[in-house]
Design a protein that fits this description.
Elements (H helix, E strand, L loop, with lengths): L3 H6 L4 E2 L2 E2 L24 H25 L25 H8 L3 H11 L11 H9 L3 H7 L16 H20 L1 H15 L8 H7 L5 H12 L8 H8 L8 H16 L11 H17 L3 H18 L8 H12 L5 H11 L2 H16 L5 H12 L9 H8 L10 E4 L14 H14 L13 E3 L3 E2 L5 E8 L8 E6 L4 E4 L7 E4 L14 E4 L5 E3 L1 H5 L1 H18 L2 E9 L3 E11 L22 E11 L4 E9 L8 H4 L3 H8 L3 E2 L10 E2 L1 H9 L6 H17 L6 H11 L3 H12 L6 H13 L3 H14 L4 H17 L1
Parallel strand pairs: 3-7
Antiparallel strand pairs: 1-2, 4-6, 5-6, 6-7, 8-11, 9-10, 11-15, 12-13, 13-14, 14-15, 16-17
Length: 800
């Protein structure tokens, strides 16, 4: 459907290492700039139906024109094919003929008089373009229709003039076929072009565009999404547009799905009114990445290139979210396959992306995270990280959090904060019996917090929006706004009603405590933390949730939502019912910040999106339906420490990926066999000289360390320098570097195995055994270490 038009206006074409060039608009002659437009109000569906009718009429007229065989004649430019809008006999070209039939005779005459040989592709605005917008054709199609003409003299040397007539008729036959084949796509482009031509069209207001998202015509749904994305943020809030667009991500038409995802990306990343980027784009990637991936893999070829452009732009923005554990490897595989696509443009783009440092950094980080996560926890950790990416919400958003989102907009007020009182105090949660009572409670809180140090006579300096209750009547949402400053972001407070909570002797943030292990951190995993309910917490639910399962679910979801705000995230949950109890059970994840859990010390440990791994617990809230008493319990979720299996760790296609990135074996060092290494390693090995000292040696070391820092699955720099000095017959220096490679805290097991293998090759069997054993203590079944021990056993057996 719509490709070219939206590629020019919708998709951000700035990509890795440069930009895709867009066609340059040539300014037309001034006579074409004057014109009028019909701005009568109509629905998008009505406009689209009119364009369909007009297009069919133009194709029929073009067929009649071609059959008649009366075409303009070139009387001025022998030996050249030149376009004529109208020739000296008054015969109009095909476009001019269509315009005359539409009553545009004066306009055709003006064009013929002022710029008779104009090419339509050089005209970007004015009454000619206005006619195109109403014709059902696109500007590119009108340029395709317009031929150039020969002179009679060009045919006097043995060729009949009717050959020129036949040439033109064949041209129009091909054009007619093209117009019919691409009608669906071109009509979508024509609709967008027509609507964008008049900025103030009444059918372009937000309400009408949202209504058009439900049209039965796919092109109308695409146009509505495109136009919603281009509305200036100061004139329309993001949240309603985003929520209106999301349902079309599941549209049965793949083009609608793709361009809806494109529109969502534009809405989420556009600058706000004050020019600052608002948060939201990272959360939207969660919804759009799968759509773009499906389009890049699909059979609709007009979507493949724009899908790859989108993936190349937004995947690097998602890499630290741990979405890469599941979806980014699939995207990387798709890009590898695109490098051998049958379309040369797709191939060229994919290779350009693969050769860029930004994408290589993305691929390396994706593979590193996948490589270092544990097999049994990889899916759960990925799910936890993706939940965090969505703003610490549930993967399947429950109704309670929907109500909270109604009370705030994370896109328009990114700094707003939602509280469940009390926030820091250890008193019981206040229970509000009316909207006025809820505002009174919040007013006291504000006087005690932001009102400290201010004279009573100057208070309050805040105001309240109308206080609302949630749809189930469980709590009040009180919104306060400061009036003493330019601080526009609201403070939102959730206060339980008696229907939700009858009694609680402790604030929500004190229902559980976290206990950290007294054992010192050891590689590769920090001892897990445990979450426990405090023994003296006493909570009684109100009458409503103890008798109604949906309301009980909503109440516990609400508690979990705020527990997540304070300590961890809820990965998923389920609710069970018996005659006497309701039980809410969910898996909670607590982030281990800065403490490596996987097989690496340092590299990803500083990532707040899971670089330190997670602790998981099964948390249960069980309600006695007779008394309303809520019992809290927690059990840790444990799993063994195992590396990912080889087929998951390094799929076959990753070898081709590295080759496309320019990786190849180190030919001058046979120690690594056929293992592929990046260009920086090759440069250091080729430029190394054992006599090099000072700044020259420091530059080589710096180059190697910078590259290793980005992908620690590479051989450690000390190991490489040890091998280089060994090659230069400086054995003592080589041994010093090898000791450095294994002498640092957090040395990964493969480095121990590599050093052991080298020590075995030089005959230092004691050191080789020591370091092979160290590798197997960290990785029980590491093949390289087991191979060293096997060779040592053979050596020992042979010497007996």
């Amino acid at each position: 459907m719509i490709t070219t038009c939206l590629l020019k206006t919708g998709v951000a074409l700035l990509i890795i290492g440069g930009a895709f060039a867009q066609p340059r608009a040539v300014e037309p002659n001034q006579v074409l700039v004057v014109g009028t437009r019909n701005s009568a109000s109509a629905s998008l569906d009505a406009i689209y139906r009119e364009l369909v009718s007009r297009r069919n009429l133009q194709i029929s007229r073009l067929h009649t024109y071609a059959t008649a065989g009366r075409f303009p004649r070139n009387t001025e430019f022998p030996g050249r094919l030149v376009p004529y809008f109208v020739d000296h006999a008054g015969t109009a070209c095909a476009v001019g003929h269509l315009m005359r039939l539409d009553g545009q005779i004066p306009l055709v005459d003006r064009i013929a008089a002022s710029c008779n040989h104009i090419r339509i592709e050089d005209v970007s605005r004015g009454p000619l373009v206005d006619w195109i917008h109403d014709s059902g054709l696109t500007r590119a199609e009108c340029a395709l229709i317009q031929p150039s003409y020969a002179t009679i003299e060009d045919y006097r040397r043995g060729r009949e003039w009717r050959d020129e007539q036949t040439r033109l008729q064949n041209h129009f036959a091909r054009v007619e076929k093209t117009l019919q084949v691409q009608s669906q796509r071109s009509l979508g482009e024509a609709l967008i072009a027509k609507l964008e031509a008049i900025p103030t069209r009444p059918e372009k207001n937000v309400a009408n565009l949202i209504d058009a998202l439900s049209s039965t015509e796919p092109n109308v749904r695409i146009a509505a999404a495109h136009l919603l994305a281009r509305i200036e943020p100061e004139t329309s809030a993001r949240a309603p547009r985003i929520e209106a667009l999301k349902p079309n991500l599941a549209d049965p038409d793949p083009s609608v799905r793709f361009w809806t995802a494109d529109a969502l990306e534009q809405v989420g990343s556009a600058p706000s009114y004050n020019g600052q980027l608002t948060r939201g784009n990272a959360e939207l990637h969660y919804f759009t990445l799968t759509v773009f991936l499906a389009a890049a893999r699909g059979n609709q070829y007009d979507l493949r290139l724009p899908a790859l452009i989108q993936l190349a732009n937004i995947v690097p923005e998602s890499i630290n979210s741990c979405q890469q554990l599941r979806i980014v490897p699939e995207i990387r595989h798709t890009l590898v396959e695109a490098c051998s696509d049958r379309d040369p443009t797709v191939r060229s783009f994919a290779k350009q992306v693969m050769g860029s440092w930004r994408w290589q950094r993305t691929a390396h980080e994706s593979q590193r995270m996948r490589r270092h996560y544990l097999a049994e926890s990889a899916d759960l950790e990925s799910l936890a990280a993706e939940t965090m990416l969505r703003g610490r919400k549930f993967v399947d958003l429950p109704s309670a959090t929907d109500d909270l989102d109604t009370g705030r907009s994370i896109y328009d007020t990114p700094d707003s904060i939602t509280y469940f009182l009390p926030v820091a105090a250890q008193t019981s949660p206040p229970i509000a019996v009316s909207p006025a009572n809820a505002e009174e409670i919040v007013d006291k809180v504000l006087r005690a917090s932001i009102g400290q140090g201010v004279e009573e006579g100057n208070l309050p300096f805040w105001k309240f929006d109308p206080t609302n209750a949630d749809s189930s009547g469980l709590f009040y949402i009180v919104t306060a706004r400061r009036t003493d400053s330019d601080f526009d972001n609201p403070l939102i407070y959730i206060l339980p009603r008696p229907a939700l909570l009858s009694h609680a002797n402790a604030p929500l943030h004190s229902w559980f405590k976290t206990t950290h292990s007294p054992t010192a951190s050891v590689w590769p995993a920090t001892p897990p933390s445990t979450i426990q309910p405090l023994p003296d917490v006493h909570v009684v639910l109100g009458e409503t949730p103890r008798h109604d399962r949906p309301t009980f679910t909503k109440a516990c979801d609400l508690f979990a939502f705020f527990l997540a705000q304070y300590a961890f995230i809820v990965v998923d949950r389920e609710v069970h019912e018996t005659a006497t109890t309701f039980t809410w059970s969910g898996r909670f994840a607590q982030l281990r910040q800065y403490k490596p859990r996987f097989f690496e010390q340092g590299g990803g440990g500083m990532s707040v999106f899971g670089g330190g791994g997670w602790d998981f617990h099964q948390m249960t809230m069980s309600c006695d339906r007779a008394t309303g008493a809520l019992t809290l319990s927690v059990e840790p979720i444990t799993f063994p420490m195992k590396p990912l299996p080889p087929e998951l760790l390094t799929p076959d296609w990753t070898t081709e990926e590295l080759k496309l990135m320019g990786w190849k074996p180190l030919e001058s060092l046979d120690f690594f066999g056929d293992r592929l290494l990046p260009a920086e390693y090759h440069e250091v090995v080729e430029n190394f000289n054992a006599a090099t000292e000072g700044q020259a040696l420091a530059r080589l070391r710096s180059q190697l360390f910078r590259r290793w820092h980005h992908d620690k699955s590479l051989p450690k720099p000390e190991l490489v320098f040890g091998l280089l000095y060994d090659r230069a017959n400086q054995r003592e220096t080589a041994q010093n570097y090898m000791r450095q490679a294994v002498g640092q805290r957090g040395t990964p097991p493969d480095t121990f195995a590599d050093v052991a293998r080298w020590e075995l090759s030089i005959g230092d069997t004691a050191a080789a055994r020591k370091h092979a054993d160290a590798a197997l203590k960290l990785w029980l079944n590491l093949p390289a270490a087991k191979d060293v021990l096997s060779q040592l056993a053979e050596v020992k057996s042979a010497t007996k």
